[in-house]
Amino acid sequence: MNALVPLPVLLPLCATGLSLAFGTRLKRFQRFISVAVLTAVLALSVALMIAADRGGPLSVHLGDFAPPLGITLVADRLSGLMLTVSSAVTLCVLVYSLGQGMSDRDGETPVAVFHPAYLILVAGVSCTFLAGDLVNLYVGFEIMLVASFVLLTLGGTGPRVRAGSTYVIISLFSSMVFLIAIATTYAATGTVNFAQLAGRLGELPLGVETLIHVTLLTVFAVKAAVFPLAAWLPDSYPTAPAPVTAVFAGLLTKVGVYCMLRTETLLFPGNRLGGVLLAAALASMVIGILGAVAQTDLKRVFSFTLISHIGYMVFGIGLATREAFGGAIVYVAHHITVQTTLFLVAGLIERRTGTTELTRVGGLAKAAPLLAVLFFVPAMNLAGIPPLSGFVGKLGLMRAGVADGGVLAWALVAGSALTSLLTLYVMAKVWNLAFWRAAPPGQAEDGTVLESYDASDDDPDSGPDRVAGTGDEGVRGHHPAGRVVAATLHGHAVTTTTRLPRTMTAATAAAVALGLAFTVLAGPLTSYGDRAAAELMARTPYVEEVLGR
């Protein structure tokens, strides 16, 4: 079974080469490769999760080089769960993107872009979850970020390039700080392997250990968009195409949360910075949700709720008890699915109405009842309405806070309740504006051009930013945004449509079903989270598996 550990990384990388080789000449085969590989990665992830749960952590030393020289990959209960949920989500988003036609513009470029970049992103995420040392964790980050730079700026529109520039600057800064942390760690301990660091960091002078701890925590807080290091997110994610925004918001921030969970338990036990984490969690919850309340664009609303609900996960990490870690693990799995689903729904709303600006949308409950259901279920799940999985995760975290009994813990319990209520208010606001009220005057008609192939995106009044050819309908040639035209198959203009593509709708429905599955399986999921938390706090199974003691 240990031989399966590298495959979630290797399969997408090999598929990337095949995808580049076929390019735009065999588009259907290229799509088949992507779907088949992500399906295989999902199956492997489930197998690794089950094996790690039954028999303990699995590890492999690539090239048979022992630590600290070799590359070590490790799958335990936490990484197995993260791999499984991320694989399921990325598969849903890939299918959604096929329905939206994300790769249609590849025919206009010398190299097929979308599928290779997406597969590299999946490989980077898998590498991050399986990394057994700081260097390969950094490599996983960089693989993931290189792909994200491409995906974030698909289409080369002005707003996307500007947003991508902000993302690049923040990412390069955090990468530089990460390299400094790795160099400091190696200079102080002579290794970067997690299992060896678990025994050596505690022997360092307190000042040196704290410096390494703070530096790593800062890097991961930037990746996770923890307040006050989250200002980059609301301006970077909403401009990207809907599938890209969905996978970024649902998954990439959780990579940072995963790294915080891993390092706070394995490398820095004792919770020395617990107070700082709790304060950051409370600020993220309250300021994030207040930002969501103030927004009128749906994608920005979801971006701010993302920042807010990251606070719940940091809440569990800051408490540093078994119950708190278990609640945080359950909430991470829940939030990956629900947040991704909401952004997919936002893409459907934009495709249906031509905008995500809530003041210009209405009447969707009557005009598109299936779309209303696809929004309502994950919205209530995010708000934590019983008995949905969001309620289960929040309840576990709040119980851990009450059990702790500290002043900050009680403040976080109150902040959690307030954030849940405000999240419900925000979701009700979106429902009332976009679905319940009558359609406002001037809402886009069927066949309205959102953006044509050569339309300039530097004009802020030129309509929503979309990649040309992102739908099954369109028209050839240049057409100004807002003009109603006859649609043709695989044309170059993006148009609204009253009949949403079935593939996009089915993929979104699958993501909703995955979120509901967490509700149905809340008991087993909670038990699994508790076992994963116990394994994280014990540390011994991980260390013995890697070092062979």
Topology:
Layout: H1 7-22, H2 27-55, E1 58-62, E2 71-75, H3 77-100, H4 114-130, H5 134-152, H6 158-189, H7 194-200, H8 206-224, H9 233-236, H10 242-267, H11 274-293, H12 298-319, H13 322-353, H14 364-367, H15 369-383, H16 389-404, H17 407-436, E3 449-451, E4 473-474, E5 488-489, E6 494-495, H18 502-520, H19 522-538, H20 540-547
Helix pairs in contact: 1-2, 1-4, 2-3, 3-4, 3-10, 3-13, 3-18, 4-5, 5-6, 6-8, 7-20, 8-10, 10-12, 10-13, 11-12, 11-17, 12-13, 12-16, 12-17, 13-15, 13-16, 13-18, 13-19, 15-17, 15-18, 16-17
What does this structure look like?
The protein has 549 residues and is mainly α. The chain has one domain. It is 68% helix and 3% strand. It is built from 20 helices and six strands. The strands form three sheets. Strands 1-2 form a two-stranded antiparallel ribbon. It has a two-stranded antiparallel ribbon with strand order 3-6. Helix 1 runs antiparallel to helix 2 (27-55) and helix 10 runs antiparallel to helix 13 (322-353). The longest helix is centred in the first third of the chain and has 32 residues, at 158-189. It is a multi-pass membrane protein.
